[in-house]
Design goal:
Elements: E1 10-16, H1 23-31, E2 38-44, H2 51-56, E3 63-66, H3 74-81, E4 89-92, E5 98-99, H4 103-111, E6 119-129, E7 135-140, E8 146-148, H5 150-160, E9 173-174, H6 192-200, E10 205-217, H7 223-226, H8 231-243, H9 252-279
Parallel strand pairs: 1-2, 1-4, 2-3, 6-10
Antiparallel strand pairs: 4-9, 5-10, 6-7, 8-10
C-alpha cells in the first residue's frame, strides 16, 4: 500500500456547504484514520456560516481548501470535489458525516487485494447518529458482506425500495473510473449518490464490508432531510428508470415488491427526519 511518485494512495474529498455545526467532527474523524496515506480536499460551496474558518483551523499538510465565488449547488460542487483528486482511490464524505478510525484501512485493503481485481466499489455498513453524535442505529444492514455482481445488487435494491449500498460516506472507489462515468447527477436529487454508485457498477463488482465503518448523521440541516418529503416519488422514478435497462434483468415482480417497500421506507424515513427535527 505505497503511493507512487509522492502521490497519496487515497483522496478524501468533502463538498462543504454551511456545515459549521458538524464539519469539525467530520475533519477530525478523517485525520484520526489508522491509514494515513491520503490527501483531504475540502470544496466549500460559498458557505455563509463559519464553515471555512473552522476547516481552516486544522493544521495538517494533507489538507487543501477550495472556495467558490458563488453557490454552485450539490451536483456541481460534488463533481468539482472529485475533479482534482490525485489519489488512486477516492472517498467523498459529506460535511456532517464521520469515519470510524479503521475505515480507510479496511476499504483500501479490499481494493489492494489481488483477488478483488474487478471491484469498482467498496462499501460498508453504517451507523446512524443524531446531531449530537449519539448512535441511533448501530448497524444498518440491507445486505450481507462479500463480493456481489451488479445485476444482483441492483435487483435487490429495487425489491427493497431503498439505497442498500449506502450514502457517499460509505463508499471508496478507484479514481480511474471518474473519467469513465458521467459524474454526480441531481436530476433526481434524492438518488444523486445511488445514481453514481450504479454508474460505477457498470465497470465492476461491489464489495460490501459487513461492519459499520462510518456514521451517517440525521439532522434538519442535512440535504437529505431538506428533500426528505420528496423521497417516495423520487426513489420510485429512479427505480423505474433503472429497471428499464434490460441488463439488470429486473422483473415485473421485482418492481411490484419494490413499490410497496419504497412506500414503507419513505414513510419511515420521513417520520425519522421529522422526529429529530422537532427535538433539535
Amino acid at each position: 500500500m505505497i503511493s507512487l511518485a509522492g502521490r497519496p494512495l487515497v483522496s478524501v474529498t468533502i463538498p462543504m456547504y454551511n456545515n459549521a455545526r458538524f464539519i469539525g467532527d467530520t475533519i477530525s474523524s478523517i485525520l484520526a484514520q489508522s491509514f494515513t496515506d491520503f490527501e483531504l480536499l475540502i470544496y466549500d460551496d460559498h458557505s455563509t456560516d463559519e464553515s471555512i474558518a473552522i476547516a481552516s483551523s486544522f493544521v495538517d499538510s494533507r489538507i487543501r481548501i477550495f472556495t467558490s465565488d458563488e453557490n454552485l449547488g450539490p451536483e456541481e460542487n460534488w463533481n468539482r470535489a472529485i475533479s482534482g483528486v490525485r489519489g488512486k482511490y477516492v472517498k467523498l464524505v459529506c460535511g456532517d458525516d464521520v469515519l470510524f478510525p479503521d475505515c480507510l484501512e479496511k476499504q483500501v485493503g479490499v481494493l489492494e487485494t489481488v483477488s478483488d481485481t474487478g471491484v469498482s466499489l467498496v462499501s460498508c455498513q453504517r451507523t446512524i447518529i443524531d446531531p449530537e453524535g449519539k448512535s441511533l442505529i448501530k448497524k444498518v444492514r440491507f445486505m450481507s458482506g462479500g463480493r456481489m455482481e451488479p445485476v444482483d445488487v441492483i435487483r435487490k435494491m429495487i425489491r427493497m425500495g431503498t439505497n442498500i449500498i449506502g450514502e457517499p460516506v460509505c463508499g471508496l472507489f478507484p479514481a480511474e473510473l471518474i473519467d469513465k462515468v458521467n459524474g454526480y447527477n441531481a436530476t433526481v436529487p434524492y438518488t444523486i449518490d445511488l445514481d453514481f454508485w450504479i454508474q460505477l457498477l457498470g465497470h465492476g463488482d461491489l464489495y460490501m464490508i459487513d461492519e459499520p465503518l462510518c456514521a451517517f448523521r440525521i439532522s434538519n440541516l442535512s440535504w437529505s432531510s431538506r428533500i426528505g418529503e420528496m423521497r417516495y416519488h423520487q426513489f420510485l422514478e429512479f427505480m423505474e428508470r433503472t429497471a428499464s435497462n434490460r441488463r439488470y434483468e429486473v422483473t415485473d415482480l421485482d418492481l411490484f415488491i419494490g413499490r410497496i417497500n419504497c412506500a414503507v421506507q419513505s414513510m419511515t424515513s420521513l417520520m425519522g427526519f421529522k422526529l429529530f427535527a422537532n427535538h433539535e
